Amino acid sequence: MTSIQGVLIAGLVISVIFASTAFRTKLAYRLVALLLFLTAATLVVFPDLTTSIARAVGVGRGADLILYVALITGIDVALLLYLRIRHLEQRIADLVRAMAVRDARRLPPEGQA
Questions:
Q1: Which of 29, 33, 38, 109 has the most CB atoms less than 10 A away?
Q2: What's the rounded Cα separation, in Å, for the pair 102 and 89?
Q3: Contact, 16 vs 29, CB < 8 A?
């Protein structure tokens, strides 16, 4: 094992620990994080495997395949986060609107204090 492989494996272990604590109530998310960790660790330990997979799907190098997958994944994550933020903004606006209507009903009529 080369030194970079050790560094990458250590980084993956830290990521899995972080994901496990962040998703402590969601078993499915923790299992997905563990599956991703095991896949990444396998590809780090056996780097020629990525090249074999890349050639099998028609890409020249394993590094190119990883770049393509990371790019597509990054775009998907950005779009999902954008949609989540829009949903939360809508919920906040609805709550503020409901609170304003509720508070307006509590006000005494004009001229009475």
A1: 33
A2: 20
A3: no
